[in-house]
Specification:
- By secondary structure, the protein is of the alpha+beta class.
- The chain has 7 helices and 19 strands.
- β17 and β18 form a beta hairpin.
- InterPro entries: DUF4837.
Length: about 325
């Protein structure tokens, strides 16, 4: 029994870079919150403006501006106790050298910290601007992983999707399989979640490779595909479900489960009705089938903030895992 206590003690203790023992405890904090550790004067000045410009930048695809992350400020002397257990933190330090370092699970678990160093305020601001995209990607990846972990605890049975498309994905039980006029379509899956302000929806289907070409008109190809499917498969009380023509979608090249994908973010609408909202669409090239797997999520909640809803959808879509095709 004494040996067991020793083993447990070793498992619970991590050694920091300054050789002080730190007991790793559960982290705290809401998803997409970052605690910024910086002096009050710097936070209220140009350096703070640079941090807000980069880390609280507006999300793509949302007409009403919402920040990518919620930033909470604390001065360095107050970064103790419970605040040190924050799941995400950004520390700003003046130093003899410039750079960015990542600290994982240093004071709590899971936890992600980023330390930005510079020789003076101007240098620190430059380091932040030069590395902002990479730092945002690190925080976002950690938050998506955490969200997927939480969703997996209350996951919906998606065997029918696995059987049809050869993929696994994490969808919370708050969603249910929807039908169009009561009919089940095994080539098109529509999942819905009711929320206080409206609904959150997912669509999964496949299209031939030649429907989406890599060219200057790729985004137009994707819009044509989603509009042709949405007009037929998504039931509305008005006109067709389509891409809002007044706002050009954002298109990026990405990867899902190691496979090439186009990421499209934009606004949907029901034509001739005052119904609209944001969507996230991934067109994933499946080399084994030589086609595109389309996975999309969209939100209908016009009277509420939509960032966290879109983040849940993004986490679901990024959880897609392709199963190996059995050789005959």
């Amino acid at each position: 029994m004494k040996k067991l206590y020793v083993i447990l003690a070793v498992c619970l203790v991590f050694i920091s870079c300054d050789d002080k023992a730190i007991v790793v405890q559960d982290s705290a904090g809401r998803l997409n919150d970052i605690l910024v550790v910086i002096g009050n004067n710097d936070w209220d000045g140009p350096l703070g403006d640079t941090i807000r410009k980069e880390f609280a930048r507006p999300l793509d695809g949302i007409v009403r501006e919402e920040p990518m992350f919620t930033l909470n400020h604390v001065k360095p002397a107050a970064f103790t106790g419970m605040l040190k257990k924050s799941r995400n933190y950004l520390i700003i330090k003046q130093s003899d050298s410039s750079g960015v370092s990542i600290k994982k699970d240093l004071y709590a678990n899971p936890q992600l910290g980023i330390v930005v160093r510079g020789t003076d305020k101007v240098d620190i601001a430059k380091v932040i601007s030069d590395n902002a995209d990479d730092m945002i990607a690190v925080f976002n990846k950690g938050e998506v992983k955490r969200k997927q972990y939480l969703m997996d605890k209350v996951a919906l049975n998606t065997d029918r999707i696995t059987d049809r498309f050869g993929i696994e994905l994490i969808v919370p039980r708050a969603y249910h399989f929807a039908t169009y006029n009561g009919e089940i379509d095994n080539d098109f899956f529509w999942l819905r979640r009711s929320i206080k302000e409206g609904t959150m929806d997912l669509m999964i289907y496949e299209v031939e490779r030649n429907r989406i070409k890599r060219s200057d008109s790729t985004v137009l190809d994707i819009v044509k595909v989603r509009d042709s499917i949405g007009a037929i498969k998504i039931l509305t009380d008005g006109g067709p479900f389509q891409t809002e023509p007044a706002f050009s979608p954002f298109l990026n090249e990405s990867q899902i489960d190691g496979k090439f994908a186009y990421e499209t973010k934009g606004t949907w609408e029901v034509k001739n009705m005052f119904m609209a909202g944001p969507f996230v669409n991934y067109a994933i090239y499946n080399k084994e089938k030589d086609n595109w797997l389309i996975i999309e999520g969209y939100v209908s909640a016009p009277a509420s903030a939509q960032r966290n809803y879109l983040f849940e959808i993004e986490s679901i879509l990024k959880s897609v895992h392709f199963l190996e095709t059995k050789k005959k």
